Amino acid sequence: xxxxxxxxxxxxxxxxxxxxxxxxxxxxxxxxxxxxxxxxxxxxxxxxxx
Length: 50
What we know:
The protein is α+β, with helices and mostly antiparallel strands.
């Protein structure tokens, strides 16, 4: 996505909050951390959508 010009990556809130099913992804923070390690602070990461 970044190679095509994305400056922001949005992770759906269901990943972190488990909405609407009530079960958040057990690897949510690991996914976010991996993105940050790969891209540094060049891309904004939003971990909620609503």
